[in-house]
Specification:
CATH architecture: 3-Layer(aba) Sandwich
Number of helices: 11
Shape: globular
Order of helices and strands: EEEHHEHEHEHHHHHEHEH
Distance between the termini: 29 Å
Strand content: 15-25%
Oligomer: single chain
Helix content: 25-40%
Structural class: alpha/beta
CATH superfamily: Alpha/Beta hydrolase fold, catalytic domain
Number of strands: 8
CATH class: Alpha Beta
Radius of gyration: 17 Å
Strand order of the largest sheet: 1-2-4-3-5-6-7-8
CATH topology: Rossmann fold
Number of domains: 1
């Protein structure tokens, strides 16, 4: 039983070796068409996708949900050396996952850093059927350093923030997910900007799902404006709360099932 007394399907745990040998933990639920979901920064697969029932909604629609923990997060490898976090490492991890699991006909989605990773995968040859981007705006795709500076400030000043401030809330989330601050600092070095031109050539049907009060990464609608086949779905909440809302899983399931 999970939050809200909702019974969850069984979670199978796998491990793959990524492009550089780093172990990547993978959580799998359900049977059917494959959909890969990538979580956000400071988070993990369980917190983003399983805890609030999003994965279960997809399982109920006939999907096999594949949810890796990003490098530096969750149950995946969390080394502290800079060499383990080259630019675009998360993108390479995602492509390694697709290759190692033999995925040839699948859907792909992500929240926040996960959405950014999805776009980086698309810019480097990923070929899913459909895309889902959530918790992300155009600024967060083509100017990654902006949010990176914010997180670097939080991670290098832990324990100093005024209660209730944005930084304090971010640190509280870090403690909730038992994140490794040293590893997460290194993850910032993996961020790579994606130019507008590379986004504009994504032809797959894409849904951009964003909280009504979420402007943390800029305008989500601006991503849709660039896409040949994009649509926008607004759900309640801000960047931290929208991912907990049932409307996120419902919007994902409705889009993939259409």
């Amino acid at each position: 039983m999970k939050d809200g007394n909702v019974s969850e399907p069984q979670v199978e745990k796998l491990e793959i070796q990524s492009f550089d040998g780093l172990p990547i933990a993978v959580h799998v639920m359900g049977e059917g068409r494959d959909v890969v979901l990538i979580h956000g920064y400071f988070s993990n697969a369980w917190t983003n996708w399983i805890r609030y029932g999003h994965a279960a909604k997809l399982v109920a629609r006939g999907f096999r949900v594949i949810m890796p923990d990003l490098r530096g997060h969750g149950e995946s490898g969390t080394p502290h050396d800079a060499a383990s976090y080259p630019p675009d490492a998360l993108m390479h991890d995602g492509l390694a996952l697709v290759e190692k699991l033999g995925l040839t006909d699948y859907d792909l989605g992500g929240y926040s850093l996960g959405a950014r990773t999805v776009v980086r995968m698309m810019a480097n040859g990923a070929a899913p059927r459909r895309l889902m981007l959530s918790g992300m705006g155009l600024e967060g795709l083509h100017h990654t350093r902006g949010r990176g500076d914010y997180f670097q400030h939080v991670l290098t000043n832990l324990g100093t923030f005024e209660r209730g401030s944005s930084e304090w809330m971010t640190e509280a989330f870090l403690h909730t997910t038992k994140g490794d601050p040293q590893a997460l600092l290194q993850v910032l070095n993996t961020f790579v900007d994606t130019p507008r031109e590379a986004i504009a050539v994504i032809t797959q049907p894409t849904v951009v799902i964003n909280g009504k009060d979420d402007q943390d990464n800029g305008s989500a609608e601006a991503i849709v404006d660039l896409l040949p086949d994009g649509r926008f779905v607004e759900i309640p909440g801000n960047h931290m709360s929208a991912v907990t809302r049932k409307e996120l899983g419902e919007a994902m399931a409705d889009f993939l099932s259409a």
